[in-house]
Design brief:
Rossmann fold, 13 helices, alpha/beta, 6-stranded parallel β-sheet
């Protein structure tokens, strides 16, 4: 198949990484894959397919292809029109953008409300949608999405793999920017401060795609800005505990990466983790936002090396089931099925384009 991916960004984010993994692995299977991006090719991950910088023209014109995959709601309207003109099938890879699941009634500014309404309108259009978990699919369906398939994210176990640790003091590793509040980094600091007050020994390591924030941190940390994937894997593997405290994820990738590296995981008990791991077997859970519960689970993990060994062994088994070699054939077969349905997809799209009440929010938002 001829497959085109549209990427509105190239910075280090899990969603961008997954799209690039799709492209690399579909190309390795013999498909003709290329990426059209708003920005230049990234340097933090290897890209094995052609990358063309389109700038603001992204989505408005397409090369000859069978499938075009877009992953940002603002691309929806123009991509849909371009796909109809070129005869390909547009596929919305809806990874759970927080704007899609926002509440327009709680938006403080009109532009934020309009963004949420446009994002939610984009999942109601009659192109096929692919998302990354059953939890995300249920939320999209509640917003009016209909043609939804679930293909979970995978893990590259040739990169994310165990290494020997020789830490004299346990290393606790986390990933995320402090200002990305849903990542819960302040909760992690709060829990670790509680343990430090009990004179527990540990060192804190954090990685983030964002530069180090100019804030007074309650704990000294070893900070890594935007590490390449191989370095990120070494940070996971070198830690005695990985801790994640997100309050909301469609697919919680970082705990899976930690498990693949043989690192015990303490993380918030989200449906996005239970998609691939069992609480109290593969990871130590706590309710999102519950700092005392997070401190209790970290205390257990720090105190009991045997518990960490059990979590690490079970986590490796869980990660093995999510290897890209397992996931990508399912994704490839789904794309073939969608291509075979192209006539029905085009009929539905043409019908909806004649109904301005369905797509006005998307169109007006993009033409501002």
């Amino acid at each position: 198949m001829r497959i085109v991916y549209l990427l509105a960004a190239s910075y280090a984010r899990g969603g961008i990484k997954i799209c690039i993994e799709h492209c690399n692995r579909l190309a390795a299977l013999g498909h003709d894959v290329q990426i059209l991006g708003c920005h230049p090719e990234p340097d933090w991950i290897e890209v094995h397919v052609p990358w063309t910088v389109m700038g603001s023209r992204l989505g408005s014109e397409l090369p000859q292809c069978d499938i075009v995959v877009f992953s940002f709601y603002e691309q929806a309207y123009f991509t849909m029109q371009a796909a109809l003109e070129s005869g390909c099938v547009p596929v919305y890879f809806a990874q759970g953008d927080e704007v899609v699941f926002g509440d327009p009634a709680k938006a403080e500014e009109r532009k934020d409300r309009d963004s949420i309404l446009a994002a939610q309108a984009s999942v109601r259009m009659p192109y096929p949608l692919i998302t990354v978990s059953s939890a995300a699919a249920a939320r999209i369906e509640a917003l009016g999405g209909k043609d939804i398939s679930v293909i979970p994210n995978g893990i590259d176990r040739s990169v994310f793999k165990p290494h020997t640790r020789e830490n004299t003091v346990p290393r606790v590793f986390c990933v995320g920017a402090i200002r990305s509040l849903f990542k819960g980094i302040p909760d992690i600091f709060g829990a670790l401060m509680k343990l430090r007050s009990e004179e527990m020994e540990f060192s804190l390591v954090r990685a983030s795609a964002e530069p180090e924030e100019e804030v007074d941190l309650p704990l000294k940390e070893e900070f890594h800005h935007n590490p390449a994937q191989e370095m990120l894997a070494r940070l996971y593997a070198g830690a005695d505990i990985y801790v994640g405290a997100s309050s909301n994820e469609s697919f919680y990738l970082t705990p899976l990466e930690a498990m693949a590296c043989g690192t015990p995981v303490v993380c918030s008990d989200l449906p996005a983790v239970r998609e691939y791991a069992a609480p109290d077997r593969d990871f130590l859970p706590f309710p999102p936002g519950d700092v005392p519960a997070l401190a209790r689970q970290l205390r257990r993990a720090l105190r009991y090396p045997e518990l960490r060994r059990c979590l690490a062994d079970n986590g490796l088994d869980a990660a093995a089931k999510m290897d890209w070699d397992v996931i990508i054939p399912r994704y490839e077969e789904l794309l073939r099925t969608l291509w075979q349905r192209r006539e029905a997809v085009h009929e539905n799209l043409l019908r909806e384009l004649k109904n301005p009440t369905v797509h006005w929010q998307i169109e007006n938002r993009e033409l501002e």
